[in-house]
Amino acid sequence: MSTTHEERAVAGGLPTDLHAQRLLLLAGAGRLARIVHVLVELDIAERIGDGSLTVDELAAKTGTHALSLYRILRVAASVGIFKEGPEKVFSATPLSDGLRPGHPGSVLPLVRYNTMDLTLRPFERILHSVRTGAPAFDEAFGQSFYAYLESHPEAGEFFERFMLHWSRRLISEELPKLGLERFRRIADLGGGDGGFLAEVLRRQPETTAVLMDLPRVAASATARLTDAGVADRVTVVPGDFFREQIPGDCDAYLLKGVLHNWSDDKVLELLHRLRTAIGNSQATLLVFDVVMSPDNRWDHGKFLDADMLVLFGGRERTLPEWHQLFAATGFELANQPEYRWSMLECRPI
């Protein structure tokens, strides 16, 4: 007598309930992350491109064991990364296109960031963060995230490239919506290598700017701004905005992807320093950051919040939490941000 697939699953001790299967997938996500790491290291998506290749062809191109590679690709295809056809032929899917460096939908730097030792090791000690509230990164590496980047130049350079990728996506997707043409002089605090600011100034020939970041980071900004032909309109200030004086005489102060790196206490400290720098002027504070949704809906910001807890000691915030921080430091929110990466525009009060 033949048995059904469900009967075989029950006999083998496997769950047939979809919720249980989903839970097993989530619990095994660490394995899947390592499989994605293999796909990235072997450049499988780019090798397949828009066509298709047999597993033997892929093994020859990557110097791997064909059967072992097939077993890994089979797992990837089961979750939509590549499509397996007859005769062990693999072709691209929308998910695998995200692993191609030149593809318009590429998120390769983000994937690399999430599958490297820098981020994986601290999550092995996540319970330390849950019990103490302190970042597990410090426990795993013996120093803070940013101190580690300073002492390990290769990791620091990768992180800057990762942030550059994020900044480029911000430019292409969000810059036209921000209305920065209203401002004559913009201070970009934590402005990195100046890529975002260079594009703002290229589009706004009457605008000038100040870029402030740590000396190691700010050193790369001058060349980038010079290449963009806008260096004569930017004052680069190497410094720590928690210690050095924040430049005055600007009518907009921009913090993009900065405040979520810090605890509430540090954010309050920085916002107080900014309010002092603004003084009696009517300069605008622009905070480009995550606004988390308040309910159970899917929100990548909630995953980023776990990163902030484990890696940095920072946090993502809901809209009421942003309101509280601004009100405590002499600002009020002047717009209605969306529940996502969003611009929070504040006026001094």
Please provide a written account of the structure:
Strand 10 and strand 11 form a beta hairpin. This protein starts with a helix and ends with a strand. The protein is globular. The strands form 2 sheets. Strands 4, 5, 6, 7, 8, 9, 10 and 11 form an 8-stranded mixed β-sheet that branches. A 3-stranded antiparallel β-sheet has the order 1-3-2. The model has no long low-confidence stretch (mean pLDDT 90). It is built from 19 helices and 11 strands. It has helices at 5-11, 18-27, 29-41, 44-48, 55-62, 66-78, 94-97, 108-114, 117-123, 126-132, 136-141, 145-151, 153-173, 195-203, 215-218, 221-227, 264-278, 300-312, 319-328, and strands at residues 52-54, 83-85, 89-91, 185-189, 208-213, 234-238, 252-256, 284-292, 317-318, 331-333, 341-348. The longest helix is centred in the middle third of the chain and has 21 residues, at 153-173. It has 349 residues and is of the alpha/beta class. The protein folds into 2 domains: 5-103, Winged helix-like DNA-binding domain superfamily/Winged helix DNA-binding domain (Arc Repressor Mutant, subunit A), CATH 1.10.10; 175-348, Vaccinia Virus protein VP39 (Rossmann fold).
